[in-house]
C-alpha cells in the first residue's frame, strides 16, 4: 500500500495529495508554495528525482486504480482524477501497470507505492575532511516559530526564508570580520531552554564585537564538509542547504563508517552564494 504516513508528513506531497481530484495544475501548486512554476518544478525534481508532472499523473492513476478496485466504474474514476477520455486513461493505465484497467480486480500484486524517495546526485556533491582552526562568530538569533517542535532539518537556512534581524553597517564597520564569511546554525544557549537560529560573520576577535550580539567560539576539530560543485542563485540557496543536509543525515551518515558528534556544532558556512555544511566527527 501507499506510504500515506510519509505523504502526510511531507508538506508538499500532502498538499498535492489533497488536490488530486480537483482541477489543480502545476501552476496552482507552485503558487501555493510561493514559487514560480519553473522554479518549483526545478526544486521538486532536484529533491524527489522525478518531474512534478509525472508524480501528479502517477498519483492520480493510483487513486483511480484504488477506486476501480473498490468497484467504481472505470469511466467515473478516470474522470474524477482528470483524465478527459476513457481511452486516454486506459492507455496511461496499461503503460503504468502493464495490464488493462478492466483486469484490475484480478491483480493482487499491483504496485500501489510510487512515492518517490529523495535521491541525491553524488556527482554534484563534494565531500572533504579537514581539521579546522578555532572559529569565532558573532551574530543575532531568533527563536523559531514552533519552538522546540520545529523540524530542524526542514528549517536549515532559516535566515533565508524568514524575517531575520540583520547586523547594520554601523555595527559591521567596527568589527574585524573575515570577508564574505558567515556562519549560521541551530544554537542552544547554555542559559536558556529555547533553541535559536544564529547567523553572523566570522570575526577575528570578540573585543570589537558590539553589545547585543551573541558570540560563539567553535572549537577547532575534525569535520566532514559537504558542498555542491556549483554556486547557487540566491533564490535557490535555502533549497541547496536543505538538499545537502538531507543527503548528509538520511543517506551519507547511515551508509558510512563514521560517527557524527551530536554534541558538536553542525553549521552552515556561506561565502557569497557558495554554501558548505560542516558535520563534526568523533
Automatic annotation (TrEMBL):
<dbReference type="InterPro" id="IPR018062">
    <property type="entry name" value="HTH_AraC-typ_CS"/>
</dbReference>
<protein>
    <submittedName>
        <fullName>AraC family transcriptional regulator</fullName>
    </submittedName>
</protein>
<dbReference type="InterPro" id="IPR029441">
    <property type="entry name" value="Cass2"/>
</dbReference>
<dbReference type="InterPro" id="IPR009057">
    <property type="entry name" value="Homeodomain-like_sf"/>
</dbReference>
<keyword id="KW-0804">Transcription</keyword>
<keyword id="KW-0238">DNA-binding</keyword>
<dbReference type="InterPro" id="IPR010499">
    <property type="entry name" value="AraC_E-bd"/>
</dbReference>
<dbReference type="Pfam" id="PF14526">
    <property type="entry name" value="Cass2"/>
</dbReference>
<dbReference type="InterPro" id="IPR018060">
    <property type="entry name" value="HTH_AraC"/>
</dbReference>
<dbReference type="InterPro" id="IPR011256">
    <property type="entry name" value="Reg_factor_effector_dom_sf"/>
</dbReference>
<dbReference type="GO" id="GO:0043565">
    <property type="term" value="F:sequence-specific DNA binding"/>
</dbReference>
<feature type="domain" description="HTH araC/xylS-type">
    <location>
        <begin position="10"/>
        <end position="107"/>
    </location>
</feature>
<keyword id="KW-0805">Transcription regulation</keyword>
<dbReference type="Pfam" id="PF12833">
    <property type="entry name" value="HTH_18"/>
</dbReference>
<dbReference type="InterPro" id="IPR050959">
    <property type="entry name" value="MarA-like"/>
</dbReference>
<dbReference type="GO" id="GO:0003700">
    <property type="term" value="F:DNA-binding transcription factor activity"/>
</dbReference>
Amino acid at each position: 500500500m501507499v506510504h500515506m504516513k510519509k505523504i502526510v508528513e511531507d508538506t508538499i506531497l500532502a498538499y498535492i495529495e489533497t488536490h488530486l481530484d480537483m482541477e489543480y495544475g502545476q501552476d496552482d501548486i507552485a503558487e501555493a508554495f510561493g514559487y514560480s512554476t519553473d522554479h518549483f518544478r526545478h526544486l521538486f525534481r532536484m529533491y524527489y528525482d522525478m518531474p512534478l508532472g509525472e508524480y501528479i499523473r502517477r498519483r492520480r492513476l493510483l487513486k483511480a486504480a484504488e477506486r476501480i478496485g473498490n468497484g467504481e466504474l472505470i469511466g467515473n474514476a478516470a474522470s474524477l482524477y482528470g483524465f478527459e477520455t476513457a481511452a486516454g486513461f486506459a492507455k496511461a493505465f496499461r503503460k503504468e501497470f502493464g495490464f488493462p484497467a478492466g483486469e484490475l480486480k484480478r491483480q493482487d500484486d499491483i504496485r500501489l507505492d510510487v512515492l518517490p524517495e529523495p535521491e541525491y546526485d553524488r556527482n554534484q556533491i563534494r565531500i572533504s575532511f579537514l581539521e579546522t582552526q578555532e572559529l569565532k562568530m558573532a551574530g543575532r538569533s531568533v527563536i523559531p516559530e514552533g519552538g522546540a517542535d520545529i523540524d530542524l532539518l526542514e528549517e536549515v537556512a532559516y535566515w533565508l526564508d524568514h524575517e531575520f534581524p540583520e547586523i547594520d553597517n554601523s555595527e559591521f564597520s567596527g568589527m574585524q570580520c573575515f570577508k564574505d564569511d558567515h556562519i549560521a546554525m541551530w544554537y542552544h544557549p547554555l542559559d536558556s531552554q529555547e533553541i535559536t537560529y544564529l547567523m553572523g560573520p566570522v570575526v577575528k576577535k570578540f573585543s570589537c564585537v558590539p553589545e547585543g550580539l551573541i558570540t560563539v567560539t567553535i572549537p577547532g576539530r575534525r569535520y566532514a564538509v559537504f558542498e555542491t560543485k556549483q554556486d547557487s542563485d540566491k533564490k535557490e540557496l535555502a533549497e541547496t542547504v536543505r538538499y545537502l543536509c538531507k543527503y548528509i543525515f538520511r543517506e551519507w551518515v547511515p551508509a558510512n563508517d563514521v560517527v557524527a558528534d551530536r554534541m558538536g556544532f553542525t553549521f552552515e558556512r556561506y561565502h557569497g552564494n557558495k554554501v558548505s555544511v560542516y558535520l563534526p566527527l568523533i
